[in-house]
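Data availability (excerpt). The following record was deposited with the supplementary files.
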Amino acid sequence: MAQVHPTAIIAPGAQLADDVIVGPYCIVGEHVALAAGVDLKSHVVIDGRTTIGERTRIFPFASIGFETQDLKYKGELSSLEIGHDNTIREHVTINPGTEGGGMVTRVGNHCLLMVGAHVAHDCQIGDHVILVNNGTLGGHVVMEDYAILGGLSAVHQFCRIGRHAMIGGMSGVERDVIPYGLAMGDRARLTGINIIGMQRRGFSRDDIQSLRNAYNGLFADEGTLSERVDEVARRFAGIGPVDDLIAFIRADSSRAICQPKGANGG
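Predicted structure:
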């Protein structure tokens, strides 16, 4: 049976699986579903059509699932889906989707959202993503697996952050950041490849060197970006990280690609 503190308020209709812990002064809305092992520490408020996966822990004063701050939102019955084994720290805010963005916000599995992080409407967050303290995502942002957003950083709406990318603290991201990229700055620019992150996650030396060579080719001075993408795709076909990089650049997006400072076209 769920363990619910006497001071908590659970609305009729809320679904609490076995082993759920609801701490003091939490409030859980009528359309919320908490899977087995979810742990609400205290003073957590969850509302809306929100589902939270197994063993996710939520810390005091987090506000989860309340209506978006998007002024275009008109009360549509959108939802929020949070996966399993996440850690959501104090004062985190996560909003559901809207009609203009597919009606659902998603957070994957094994993510860490540190103090004061914000996930806006219609964001799509992969697995093992980290938002450091006060990291902010505008609406419709995509963060792929293992991406990291540094503290006090903000990502413009509709931007994409590629897998294994890392955004330095106090950055403002207004363009798509390539997979495995490092970016930072008031208007963020690429500063290289996240080599340390790749090493920590077991990428081979050959894959890392190939990716470095591909990066240098992509942001060389000769030709157009499209021409350089085609050349890199030809030279490094079949190398996983480079394939990820090429697919990301070729995908449809409403934002330009973040480039190194002074790069051709950057």
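Summary of structural features: Residues 198-250 form a domain with the Udp N-acetylglucosamine O-acyltransferase; Domain 2 fold (CATH 1.20.1180).
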